[in-house]
Amino acid sequence: MVSFTTIAILGAATLAAALPTATTPQDASPALGRRTGATHRVEAGFAGTLRFEPENIVAEIGDLVEVHFAPANHSFAQSSFAKPCVPINDNAIFSGFQPATKGVQAEAPNAFTIEVTDKLPKWFYCAQTKGNHCQMGMGMVINQNFDGGATLDQYKKMAAWTGVSISPPIVGNGGTLAPPSMPFNGKA
Ligand SMILES: *[C@@H]1O[C@H](CO)[C@@H](O)[C@H](O)[C@H]1NC(C)=O
Ligand SMILES: [Cu+2]
Q1: Cβ < 5 A residues, ion ligand 2
Q2: Which candidate among 11, 36, 152, 159 keeps its CA 20 to 30 Å from the CA of 26?
Q3: What is the pLDDT of residue 34?
Q4: How many angstroms is it from 185 CA to the middle of ligand 1?
Q5: Domains present along the chain, CATH in parentheses
């Protein structure tokens, strides 16, 4: 006769085998949760403009945001809503500058990928001071609150009146620099 315990153990083993592996080695980054498998591609300096495209992303926890860098020399840096073009704090997300040569490269060799770990609005800018990219409109948001006044439009308006941009202190912080998982759809 098969005991209850045996059935329970067999049941648990079967269930465990059927579940997707929660922490495969490539997903084992300690602060991060389960990946959704969705990747939002963003291009910094889309088609030669001083914009991110798309610039207003709605993402789920566990989604990835992969920022590509078109020519000439852009970056992806985290600010607060209230103070565009300035690092949110010393731990601000920052890709560093990723130059690409127009007419030679469609985009910089590396993209910068971050994982969305909560649903709070996150504000980003390009810290390039030559040409005042942030002040000229290189701002974007992940998970804007669409019910409030903290809109991307407002962020960009404040950015236009902000002085010289400041780069976050830690290059590569909060994400991964690696060759893009696939090319960006737009023209570079
Ligand atoms: C890219 O911009 C940064 C910040 O302005 C600068 O320090 C760096 O030299 C630039 N790189 C190239 C290749 O122009
Ligand atoms: Cu830029």
Answers
A1: 74, 126, 128, 133, 138
A2: 11
A3: 82
A4: 25
A5: 29-178 (2.60.40.420)
Say if residues 36 and 62 touch (Cβ distance below 8 Å).
yes
DSSP string, 18-43: HSPPS--GGG--TT-----S-EEEEE
Ligand 1 lining (C-beta closer than 6 Å) = 73, 97, 99, 128-130
User: Alpha-carbon distance 153 to 155, whole Å?
Assistant: 5
Amino acid at 131: G
Ligand 1 mutation pick, 50, 76, 97, 126, max ligand atoms within 8 A of CB = 97
Contacts of 152 (CB under 8 A, 6+ apart): 55, 56, 139, 140, 141, 144
* Exposure string for 33-45, b = 16+ CB within 10 A, e = fewer: eebeeeebbbbbb
**What does the DSSP assignment read for 80-136?**
-SSSTTS-SSTT--B---EE--TTT-SS-S-EEEEE--SSS-EEEE---TTTTTTTT
For position 32, what pLDDT does the model report? 56
Model-level pTM greater than 0.85? no
Candidates 140, 85, 89, 137; CA nearest to 114 is 140
User: Which of 94, 75, 74, 117 minimizes the C-alpha distance to 172?
Assistant: 94
Using pLDDT thresholds of 50, 70 and 90, give the confidence band for residue 185. low
Model confidence pLDDT, tens digit, residues 37-47: 899 999 999 99
Tokens of 5: 């315990």
